[in-house]
């Protein structure tokens, strides 16, 4: 995959479509912020993409907590879940960004993981998500 031009930053769904075309056993994918907000999706309706984003964020967060407790690091490379008839892959995709991919049960994990890593490496700067600003309490929300 080649680099991304600045005018393509607005619509990252084309990257996910390309991943699905490269690996036909991928049923769909979602790019999300680490706090679970969907940034782009392919292969899912909006409601399903948002639900997968929330689930992937939770699983990724649990893996980070496990790493902090048992591995002296909160770095997570990938979380893989084997479901009844699907495989779910969740990978770090850059600053505050995560990539979740749902593949068929027959998918080769090495191929899916390799193609996800290749995509992320090729376009990582465009996958970063800026940190959200801290909420400023208004006068109405202040406790007296």
TrEMBL record:
<dbReference type="InterPro" id="IPR053141">
    <property type="entry name" value="Mycobact_SerProt_Inhib_Rv3364c"/>
</dbReference>
<dbReference type="Pfam" id="PF03259">
    <property type="entry name" value="Robl_LC7"/>
</dbReference>
<dbReference type="InterPro" id="IPR004942">
    <property type="entry name" value="Roadblock/LAMTOR2_dom"/>
</dbReference>
<protein>
    <submittedName>
        <fullName>Roadblock/LC7 domain-containing protein</fullName>
    </submittedName>
</protein>
<feature type="domain" description="Roadblock/LAMTOR2">
    <location>
        <begin position="13"/>
        <end position="103"/>
    </location>
</feature>
């Amino acid at each position: 995959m080649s680099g991304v031009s600045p005018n393509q930053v607005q619509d990252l769904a084309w990257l996910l479509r390309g991943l699905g075309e490269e690996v036909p056993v991928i049923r769909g994918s979602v790019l999300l912020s680490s706090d679970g907000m969907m940034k782009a999706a392919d292969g899912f309706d909006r409601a399903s993409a948002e639900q997968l984003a929330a689930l992937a964020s939770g699983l990724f967060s649990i893996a980070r907590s496990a790493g902090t407790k048992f591995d002296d690091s909160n770095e997570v490379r990938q979380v893989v879940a084997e479901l009844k008839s699907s495989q779910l892959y969740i990978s770090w995709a850059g600053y505050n960004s995560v990539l979740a991919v749902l593949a068929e049960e027959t998918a080769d994990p090495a191929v899916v993981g390799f193609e996800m890593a290749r995509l992320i490496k090729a376009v990582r700067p465009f996958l970063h998500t800026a940190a959200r600003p801290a909420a400023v309490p208004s006068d109405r929300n202040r406790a007296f």
